[in-house]
Design goal:
The protein is mainly alpha-helical. The chain is built from five helices and two strands; from the N terminus they run H-E-E-H-H-H-H. It has two domains: 1-76, no CATH class; 78-118. A two-stranded antiparallel sheet has the order 1-2. A hairpin with a 6-residue loop joins strand 1 (35-37) and strand 2 (44-46).
């Protein structure tokens, strides 16, 4: 069992993102280089990240518009949304399976059908 507990907070993650994207020197121990206030909760957020670490709101208007659109569509689909998503994931797993692809090669298929499978 570790003798110390280290809690990584939002600020630590944001600084690591700035370093990874080349926006900050890894040896720079100061706080964020530049921040912007989240339009939803007004928490200061580094420019290097796309989403507020406090509330999860997208900082870019187009990103948030896409998220709002997807949320609306999920609400319209209701409880069936998760079932349909899982069915799609299962279908992708099957189609990308090498054994399934080898089996499909043994079946006579039209050129159009083969093109659809990729």
């Amino acid at each position: 069992m570790p003798s110390r507990y280290c809690h990584v907070d939002v600020d630590d993650v944001a600084i690591a993102v700035e370093v990874a994207q080349g926006l900050r020197d890894p040896e720079d121990t100061s706080s964020f280089s530049e921040t912007v206030d989240c339009p939803n909760c007004e928490h200061p957020v580094p420019l290097a990240v796309r989403f507020c670490g406090s509330c999860g709101h997208a900082l870019d208007v187009s990103d948030q518009s896409e998220i709002d659109f997807l949320k609306k569509k999920l609400d319209e689909l209701g409880e069936d949304a998760l079932t349909m998503w899982q069915a799609g994931q299962d279908a992708l797993t099957l189609v990308n399976n090498p054994s399934f692809r080898a089996f499909m090669e043994t079946i006579k298929m039209s050129p159009e059908a083969k093109a659809e499978l990729g």
